[in-house]
Every structure is written in C-alpha cells, then in structure tokens.
C-alpha cells in the first residue's frame, strides 16, 4: 500500500468547496459620448476565483493586460473600463455588443449581452428634449396638485 501525502486530506476537503463561476452583476447597455470614459460592469463568484475576459461581437477584447497602451482596462472586479470611447467616421472600435465570461477549472459563466452605443448629436438632443418634457410634466403636475389644494 502506498502512503498518501500528509496534505492529501486537506487538499481534497478544500476542493469539495470549489464551485463553478456564476455572474452576480451583469453589464448594462450604455449610451456614451465619443471621447468620454465608460464602464461595463461585471462581477463573478466562484472558487477558485474565476478569471474574466470580455468579448465584443464574439471576438476577445484587448485590454491593458494584453497591451499596456490600450484605452481599455480590465478592473480587478472584472469590469471593463474605457479611458475614452474611440469613435470615428470609418472606425468604431468600441461600439458593439459585449459579454463578460468568467472561467475557472469547473466551468464558465457568460453574462447577458450589453450594447455600447456612441451618442450622436441628434440622439443627444432627443435625450435632452425627453428630459425637458419629463421635468415640465412634473412641474405641471405639481402646479395642478397645488391648485386643487387651494380651490
């Protein structure tokens, strides 16, 4: 009979506590202005702690971990931070649909899709117009409520 190493029972007990990754915070859709910073959030649990990678349109996203000059940073939480959104007439490298993937030796978990859209000037005006109507609606409702109380 071959004797087992002293730490065999300990390592076996620890591995029973291991569990596959699961996404606990999914990224949300973003509308961002060109040149502004942005963050796509993602958090995962698992044991051992899962590694997180981001994909856009099925392709792995290059971050500062791959190239220190990259404008995209993988944060310790797993979120993807853009120092500035890059968007041009011919090239739109940041715009698209993203997912984060968490992996450990027990498996992987994939987040919900999140779209990152770069705001155009017309979209900017529409958003501000909607906010203005919302604010005016609240003011009108408040005035109506006050008038009902007085009359």
From TrEMBL:
Pfam families: Ig_3. CDD domains: IgC_1_Robo. Keywords: Immunoglobulin domain. GO terms for cellular component: axon; plasma membrane. GO terms for biological process: axon guidance; dendrite self-avoidance; homophilic cell adhesion via plasma membrane adhesion molecules. SUPFAM superfamilies: Immunoglobulin. Residues 21-117 form the Ig-like domain. GO terms for molecular function: cell-cell adhesion mediator activity. This is Ig-like domain-containing protein.
């Amino acid at each position: 009979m071959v004797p087992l190493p002293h730490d065999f029972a300990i390592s076996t007990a620890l591995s029973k506590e291991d569990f596959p990754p699961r996404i606990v915070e999914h990224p949300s859709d973003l509308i961002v202005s060109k040149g502004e910073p942005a963050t796509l959030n993602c958090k995962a649990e698992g044991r051992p702690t899962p590694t997180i990678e981001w994909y856009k349109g099925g392709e792995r996203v290059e971050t500062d971990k791959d190239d220190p000059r990259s404008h995209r940073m993988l944060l310790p939480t797993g979120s993807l931070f853009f120092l500035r959104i890059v968007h041009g007439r011919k090239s739109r490298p940041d715009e698209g649909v993203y997912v984060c993937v968490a992996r450990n030796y027990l498996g992987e978990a994939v987040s919900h899709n999140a779209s990152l859209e770069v705001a155009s000037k017309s979209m900017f005006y529409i958003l501000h117009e909607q906010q203005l109507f919302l604010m005016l609606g609240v003011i009108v409702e408040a005035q109506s409520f006050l008038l009902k109380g007085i009359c």
